[in-house]
User: Fold this.
Amino acid sequence: KAGVTQTPRYLIKTRGQQVTLSCSPISGHRSVSWYQQTPGQGLQFLFEYFSETQRNKGNFPGRFSGRQFSNSRSEMNVSTLELGDSALYLCASSFDEPVQETQYFGPGTRLLVL
Amino acid sequence: GNSVTQMEGPVTLSEEAFLTINCTYTATGYPSLFWYVQYPGEGLQLLLKATKADDKGSNKGFEATYRKETTSFHLEKGSVQVSDSAVYFCALSDAGTYKYIFGTGTRLKVLA
Assistant:
């Protein structure tokens, strides 16, 4: 069974631009969660989607948004990029409720904002 | 609120040494506890988990026991290898807020 895939793996943007990251979950998994990983803050939860609905949300500004498609693939968008948005963005999938199920992580998208 | 506290790293050991990485948590209710490992340039991989008190999770020689009385979930391995060099994350799943809470990670370096 293929694992969680994320595209692109690396991205360089400049301040003020916007970016869209993509995540394809493991086949059959319906929940997709997004995390931001930085050296200073560690792993921080962004949001979780299930059946095309945002089910849970972390404490990030509205510049961070996401969506999920009917095939469970998910995208995350960051608008008006800031230098502090430079991070590794990880997506994780699970069959259903992440806190009841094991989460499987993708390799991440490393975003650098200049 | 709920939280996870891990020992600061880096932890540097010689090959075949005994490993302990401490993890304590605060939580209401009965969370599930996890250890994840992150190798350089990769995402996180589940190493082991425990879903209730006194459960022992184990995988690839690593073990951790869910201790409710001490609110701990320490990771241990009897004999580390160079290939175990990675960052290890302790985490809990919070059924109250439906979120995972991760510790800050502990970097392990194993020297040949």
